Amino acid sequence: xxxxxxxxxxxxxxxxxxxxxxxxxxxxxxxxxxxxxxxxxxxxxxxxxxxxxxxxxxxxxxxxxxxxxxxxxxxxxxxxxxxxxxxxxxxxxxxxxxxxxxxxxxxxxxxxxxxxxxxxxxxxxxxxxxxxxxxxxxxxxxxxxxxxxxxxxxxxxxxxxxxxxxxxxxxxxxxxxxxxxxxxxxxxxxxxxxxxxxxxxxxxxxxxxxxxxxxxxxxxxxxxxxxxxxxxxxxxxxxxxxxxxxxxxxxxxxxxxxxxxxxxxxxxxxxxxxxxxxxxxxx
Length: 283
What we know:
By secondary structure, the chain is mainly beta. 0% of the residues lie in helices and 53% in strands. The two termini are 24 Å apart.
């Protein structure tokens, strides 16, 4: 998650669009709703105009499909199975801001009575510029075209939904000739129905001295019923010897650590690692 939970953009990129000459701020860029079915919940987004001119903005929605690489494929709203775009109302959906002015946008989530699972979508804040009628984009409102946008991730999952489950497999070495550090990969599968925020790290245990060294974690987001292949680098600061190397996945204090391990040799040359063994680690 981004620090301070905001995107600040000045002539930069946002997701799939290049925003030239834009100067505005949106916070937060992630909304997590936990409304129960047949109830509603409201959150707010703050938009601030940092430019030197009066700017009009509009709010729109899109669906996205998460991929195994962690990217998000943007799609039209209400076009995917797990969309919540049609459950949201925003107020206002169109507004103008003077230089330095900000506004709070109300985002209201109304969950249908039968929806107990996790759903998501993308909300976009978009500055607009006037156009003549003959050059206006026919897919947008007449005379208006989008000139840059900031995306807000929207998640909805009832608080009563506690279906978390993670599995780790296929832990193996993937080091290639010329790599400055040894590399290892594993497949992490989300078997549950919640978006899992995972911290993944390597743990090396010297099999002779029993000394352990834990390496800094990486953060990964894994969506329900999806797998991600993660790659980790092993720093070159371990003393020579035989090690049990484990990849550990921490997806919350209430749940057991998941992991897999293999045996490696640390020497002058880079040998192949032995076969991996999946494990469940008690916290």
